[in-house]
Each structure stands twice: as structure tokens, then as C-alpha cells.
What does this fold into?
Amino acid sequence: MPKIYFIDVTNRDGVQTAHLGLSKLEKTLINMYLNEMGIFQSEFGFPTTRHESLYLRANLELAEMGVLQPIRLEGWIRATVTDVETAFRLVPNIRHLNLSISTSEQMIHGKFLGKKSRDDILKMMVDAVEAARAHGAETIGVNAEDASRTDMDFLVRFALAAKEHGAQRFRYCDTLGYDSPFTSYETTKALAENAGIPIETHCHGDLGMAVANSVAGAKGAIDGGQDVYINTTINGMGERAGNADLAATILAVTKSKGFAERYQLAGPIDLTKAWKIAKFASYAFGVPIAVNQPGVGVNAFAHASGIHADGVLKDPQNYELYGFDELGRGEPELVETGREICSGEYSGISGFKHIMGQMAVSFKDASEMQEILELVRYANVEAQKPLVEDELLFIAKYPQIARKLLTLKPLE
Ligand SMILES: [Zn+2]
It folds into this structure.
């Protein structure tokens, strides 16, 4: 029986979101949390974007050190030979790539303005796949952008050509959130059956159905005989109305009526990390978690009305589908209401020593402390808000990696 994998794309689609972004340290922490959670793959950034190079290289180094293991780190580029060459020049150790190109008539005409035919699109994709393999890519996914507005015959041709030339996965992009669960199911099933390649679902929420379409797409791919790789983002962050929310999608495939009995995860996922990762992403993006967000919203386990409160006190299962502790909630959280010493870009040694001492971090000598403080200052310049405990601990533990994450060298 084929299985369900998760590919989180917060560090790619999430940061493409208008008005929002993440520092390189925040992106790194997200990779660390996704790894702890058991997520199969993180689409960790843009290998052709120069300001990402050192961040991507540093994260691959963390993988080599065994820190970012077993998660797979994969980069997103356009499906062109030029992009493949640039990616391997700027990030030589990259081994996993997704190559993206538009496939719908709308986009082929609307973006390439009549200069490209469908055959040109196929050739560009195939050439890019060949180039990526020649440069040493171990796994390649091909993304059909706007796939949900592309006719089935062409999608099958596209997926077959990708497979023939050595791609491992086909990403079915519902770029505009146009699918419903019914069409998502039919299409992914037909693609799995006719192209015989593992399917990635990539669903957007423009019609409020990103999670539902992901679940239906997963069912379609598996019923069609192929593994499925569901694309998610933390807190559903993503372009316009966002992507399928990570926690909600995991809940949906593991808790919804009858689904988990037939459709299984490829490996265990530690859902108890959901609360921590949602809170961190909310802080890092500066976007509050909606009160009614599944599992992690303030109201997800709140009961006020008489009948519900009475019922849940007698037996939580009367009004709760799953327990708050399953998402890692329930621990009291300390919020400082008095004096606060926090990190900043102009922090001094005394305050820094106090902060690190509270986390039981000690330094071997004054110069080591000064070195870490200097890095923390730089991290604050990029984040423009106090660092969280895990960021400070990360810098203290991996100063050489932090140095790379914090280095921006324009126009290399
Ligand atoms: Zn997207």
C-alpha cells in the first residue's frame, strides 16, 4: 500500500507571502523543528537567490553534521538549465530539487506571451531534469504550476516525460486554489494511474479548501497506486489565502472519519511539536495564530457554553475530537510581567550574561561570551525583534553555523 509523506514548504512558499518574511536563523529553526516533528522533507529555500546561498549551505552542513537528520532538504528553482547551473554553482552540495514550470494554457500564453508552445515547455522541463541529474541531484520533483487549470492529457504527458528522464515525483500544483476535493481526487488518481509516478499535492486556500483538497488528493494518489507527498506550510502561511496548514493536515489524515484506517503515514509524526512550531512561526512571521485555528488556536479546546462545558468535564470526548496534549499543549507558560531583559542589536555583556544564565548556558571564558554576544547582535539586526530561547541556544551551540547564516554578501 502506498504511503503519505509530508513536504513542508514554509521556507519557500511561506516566505513568498506578501508583506512577510523570515530571517535566515528563523528559517533554520523551522528546519530544526520540522526535523524534530518527523516531517519527511523541507523545501528550505531558493538555491538561485544569492542572499540564500550561505543559509542553504549552512543548513546542508547541519545535515552533514547529523543535526538536520533525517529530514531531507530540498531547494526550489525554475525548470531551466540556467537555474540548475546557478543552483549548483551557488550551493554545490544541494542534492534534492524541485523544478517548476507553468503548464496551463492560461499561463503558457499569459506569461510566455505566445513565445512558447507546449512542446517547448516539455523540452525545457526535460532539459532541466537532465541537467540536474548530470550535476548530481539525487531526487528531483517536477512542479506543474497551475496544474489544476491544465488539461489532463498534457499533465500526463508532462509527468511521463519527467519520469522517463529520471524525476522521482510530480507536483500537482493547485496554484490558484481552484480545485474542490472532488476534482482533486479525480485528477490525482488519474495522474497516478496514467503516469505511474509519486504525486505531490500543493494546495492553496483561495476557496477555503486547501486542507480538504490535500486529503482528497492524497486519497486519489494512493487509490491510483502511488505514494503521495502532501505540501504544507506552518499556520497555512503562503501566498494570498495561504497553503494547507501543517497541523490541520496532519490532524485531518490521522483523525478524520475512517481515513487513517485505510491511508497511512510513511513514518511517525510527532504531533506534540505542533504547538511549539506554530507558536514559533507566528512569532517569526509576526502573524497571530487565529483563535479558531485547528489544534493550535486559543479556542481549539475552550468551552464556555453550559451544555458543552458540562459535557466536556464529564468526558472530554463528548466535545473534543482529540486531546490538547496530543499537540503539545497543556504546559503552563511563563510570561514576564515585570522587568524583562531581552536580546537586541545593541545588547551589552551584562544583560546577555543574565539572559544566557537563566537558560543555564555558561561560557568557557569572556572572549567566547563576547563572540556569541556579537553573533546574537547580528541576529537581532536581521530579525528586528528579541530572539527566542531556541535561537539563542542555537547560536551558542553552533556559532560557526550561525556566523554563516548571518553573513550577507551582496553581488558575489
Ligand atoms: Zn504555492
